[in-house]
Design goal:
The chain has about 140 residues and is mostly beta strands. The protein is built from one helix and eight strands; from the N terminus they run αββββββββ. A hairpin with a 2-residue loop joins strand 4 and strand 5.
Length: about 140
């Protein structure tokens, strides 16, 4: 019998939909590596936290292997590509409820930011850290 597909992309989509249904803003914490396409100037300690709500993104696609969308950073539209395996957490900004995941990725080094402007789609707070074991639903804040 073949190995079943990962539950992670299905859980990400479920928490994303739950956030939208309840009027919350979905955020993801991402471990950035060579396969992840995000603005490196906003990466801190190999991670980035992104607002992936419909007001912050366009052309959002959450597949079984990746999340892709367009988002504005410092007023400029940027194309994002996030492998599902790089997502460390998804949660509602307003109450911190969500889910953390293990990642087997090694973070990339961030380039120094040459702008003091904070983009609208990046959360400046410390992202949640995934714990060991299976995905868990818990309050993150």
């Amino acid at each position: 019998m073949p190995e079943p597909t990962s539950t992670k992309p299905y859980l990400l989509r479920a928490i994303y939909e739950w956030c939208l249904d309840n009027g919350f803003t979905p955020y993801v914490s991402v471990v950035v590596d060579a396969q992840t396409r995000v603005p490196m100037e906003y990466v801190s300690d190999g991670e980035i936290v992104l607002n992936i709500g419909p007001l912050a993104t366009s052309r959002m696609q959450m597949g079984n292997d990746s999340i892709s969308c367009s988002a504005r950073f410092g007023g400029a539209a940027r194309e994002l590509f996030i492998p599902i395996s790089a997502v460390a957490a998804i949660y509602a900004k307003e109450n911190g409820q969500g889910m953390t995941f293990e990642t087997d990725r090694q973070p990339a080094r961030a380039a120094p930011a040459d702008s003091t402007e904070t983009p609208g789609s990046v959360e400046p707070t410390e992202p949640p850290r995934p714990g060991p074991g299976k995905p868990t639903l818990r309050r993150i804040k």
